[in-house]
UniProtKB/TrEMBL annotation:
One of its GO terms (molecular function) is oxidoreductase activity. Keywords: Oxidoreductase. The keyword Transmembrane does not apply. This is NADP-dependent 3-hydroxy acid dehydrogenase YdfG. GO terms for cellular component: membrane.
Length: 280
């Protein structure tokens, strides 16, 4: 797919990976609709996009809470009115949580499922009729390598990201007859503000695994050599090619293949590595 002139709608575009994606798509010549629950942040991202001619027609900034089906409908209608359709949807908006299955309250599960999983469902449902009518388009869901690796004490986060991978594979089957592509991105650690929105479960009496895992994740993000720009570039390339599964880190790709081929060996290695981290 050539991206020049394509109409791209990105959720959670006000910061982090969403902003990096907006910049990458715009640099490739696409028109980008930046949406975020914080309209000011979306506007700031839109202002950063490289101007080309009539800049007002090449970038939009719209408020969108992905927990609202009505807001998704309104946003897609606004993009359609401005540009005549949507070629690429990137379901990027997401939050983080920490806690074991035993410790994480159901309110935490409901909170993250509503955003990370149902946000992708609402986004897909909002654009599917339009893309089917166009007989073209591409849906990108941002999952995480956590949805493949499933480390301890990130229970509800892991589950939502694994569900996004499953949702994406289902969509791939369902949308292929309509000429619509699907990609799911599973980045590992990179520097982002995701943990700033994290909800951590209070540990059970005598337990401290969840706080430790939160600190470990934050430290791994800070030390990551892969940037949000690197991840965004890989995702944009997956739309251009196209590719379905986007595992953006080389070491994560190795672990993915190891888990598929030797799942018990992978479990033993991952458990040993996790225990070593927790012991620090």
């Amino acid at each position: 797919m050539t991206l020049a002139g394509q109409r791209v709608l990105i959720t959670g575009a006000g910061s982090g990976l969403g902003r990096a994606l907006a910049l990458q798509f715009a640099s490739a010549g696409a028109r980008v609709a930046c949406t975020d629950v914080n309209l000011e942040s979306a506007q700031q991202t839109a202002a950063l996009l490289p101007p080309r001619g009539a800049a007002a027609t090449l970038a939009l900034a719209l408020a969108l809470d992905v927990r609202s089906e009505a807001e998704f409908t309104d946003v897609v209608a606004a993009v359609q009115q401005a540009w005549g359709g949507v070629d690429v949807l990137v379901n990027n908006a997401g939050v983080a949580t920490a806690g074991t299955v035993a410790e994480s309250p159901l309110d935490q599960w409901r909170f993250i499922i509503d955003i990370n999983l149902l946000g992708c469902v609402r986004g897909a449902r909002a654009v599917i009729p339009l893309m089917q009518q166009q007989r073209a388009g591409h849906i990108v869901n941002i999952a995480s390598f956590a949805g493949i690796a499933n480390p301890p004490a990130l229970a509800s986060y892991n589950a939502t990201k694994a569900a996004v991978i499953s949702l994406s594979e289902t969509l791939r089957f369902e949308m292929a007859p309509h000429g619509v592509g699907v990609s799911v991105a599973c980045p590992s650690f990179f520097q982002t503000a995701l943990m700033e929105t994290s909800r951590a479960a209070a540990p059970a009496a005598g337990g401290d695994v969840a706080p430790q895992m939160s600190r470990i994740v934050a430290r791994l993000m800070q030390k990551a050599t892969v940037s949000a720009d690197d991840v965004a570039a890989d995702i944009v390339d997956a739309v251009r090619r196209p590719r379905f599964l986007v595992i953006t880190h080389a070491d994560a790709r190795q672990r993915y293949h190891l888990k598929r081929l030797l799942p018990e060996r992978y479990f033993r290695m991952a458990r040993k590595a996790t225990e070593a981290f927790l012991a620090r």
